[in-house]
Amino acid sequence: MDIVPDAVTDDDRLHSEEYLTQFNTDNYLCMYAFFEFVPLFDFIIEKLVRIFVENKSRLGHDRALEFGAGPSLLASFVLAQQVKSIRFSDYTPSNLAAVADWIKEDPGAHDWSDLFNHILQEYQRQANCGSQSVKRSDWEKQLREALKLGGLSTCDVNAVDCPVLGGEPNQYDIVLSSMCLEVACVTHHLFKATVKRLYALLKADGLLILIHGRNQTYHILNDRRFFVLPVNEITVSEALQEAGFVDIHIESRDQEADAVADGDGIMVINAFKPKISA
Question: What's the average model confidence in pLDDT over 29-51?
């Protein structure tokens, strides 16, 4: 599979800075209300839960970073059952405000109940819980506590002084980034550089999870076409290897381009920082 070059010629695509003025958080959250009709959600949830179930004994339990999370709590809902603290970061203030509303249990906050229930069902299936009850309210409480402890932060891959990426090294047990780096990074060079910065933030034997669209060049939201850096299994594997990651595992699912995105698949990737860094 060929690696797409860095050149970006489609000038009508909006880049990361336009997210501050053109991205509509409420419209984006509406997509999650119909998650059962979007096959990629099942794939992401299944693979994400599997990563945590299969690596449970290997993972640390203190701190996690969700980088470029958007307003979505899908991944953090699973993360919070593994760690005590989640630092939740995103580029767009309106996305962080939506998460803050949920933490405060604001009446107008997005209702994640249906999606959370679906995640719990998948977790019970994979973890072989049997008749043991897993309550959504307990998981939600852990999520709120983890987010309060870790805090909400703005982040920007283009900023040399980004407080998240420039933070203290070796501080996180888990770093997770979903549908972010390929949107924020305008070149493959910046993509690789950002992966290296995430590597530095992980503790030895820490886990990195990435979720990316495959070979995608744009996505459309609210009639706006946003830039996406095309990446694939080769691109991501090279970036991880160059950063120093080991035990790289990539799960892919094919999908046809549709009215809102031109990618041909979805990838869920996990890799570990070596126990003893070089």
Answer: 85
Phi–psi pair at 78, nearest 5 degrees: -80, -45
Closest CA to 53 of 121, 123, 120: 123
**Which residues lie below 8 Å from residue 141, measured CB to CB, with a gap of 6+?**
none
Residue-wise pLDDT tens digits, 126-173: 998 765 678 999 999 999 999 999 999 999 998 889 999 999 999 999
Alpha helices in 128-168 (DSSP H): 136-150
**Whole-number pLDDT of residue 20:** 66
* Kind of pairing between the strands at 172-178 and 202-214: parallel
**What are the boundaries of each domain within the chain?**
16-272
pTM score, whole prediction:
0.91
**Surface-to-core class of residue 210, CB atoms within 10 Å of its CB (0-12 exposed, 13-18 middle, 19+ buried):** buried
Helices (H), the chain: 19-22, 25-32, 39-54, 74-79, 93-103, 113-127, 136-150, 181-184, 188-201, 233-243
Structure tokens at 77: 């809902």
The answer to whether domain 16-272 has CATH 1.10.357.10 is: no
CA angle centred on 138, ends 134 and 141, rounded to 5°: 155
Residue 73's pLDDT band (cuts 50, 70, 90): very high
How far apart are the C-alpha atoms of 199 and 229, rounded to whole Å?
A: 20
User: From CA 41, how far away is CA 57, in angstroms rounded?
Assistant: 26
The phi and psi torsions of 247 (rounded to 5 degrees) equal 50, 45
